[in-house]
Amino acid sequence: MQIIFSEQALTYILPILIFISRIFDVTLGTIRIIFVNRGMRFLAPIIGFF
């Protein structure tokens, strides 16, 4: 079964996906900084990788 997106649907879906991925990115960065400040330096590079 093929899923075909129209251009109008992609016009709305793509910005929403970008917005959600930026929220995820900023959240991981914040958690990483909190871990570094609390002395958990072994977890910070692992989170920074993702």
Brief synopsis:
The protein is mainly α and 50 residues long. It has 2 helices and no strands. The longest helix is centred in the middle third of the chain and has 31 residues, at 7-37.
Task: Walk me through what this model shows.
Helices cover 74% and strands 0% of the residues. It has two helices and no strands. It is an all-alpha fold. The protein has a domain at 26-50.
Compute the CA-based radius of gyration: 17 Å
Helix and strand run: HH
Task: Report how far apart the termini are.
Answer: 32 Å
The chain-level mean pLDDT equals: 84
Globally, the shape reads rod-shaped
Low-confidence stretches: none
Indicate the multimeric state: single chain
The description of the largest β-sheet is: none
Number of helical stretches of at least 4 residues: 2
Number of strands: 0
Q: What is the beta-strand fraction?
A: under 5%
Keywords:
50 residues, mainly alpha, 2 helices
Reconstruct the topology from this structure.
Blueprint: H1 7-37, H2 44-49
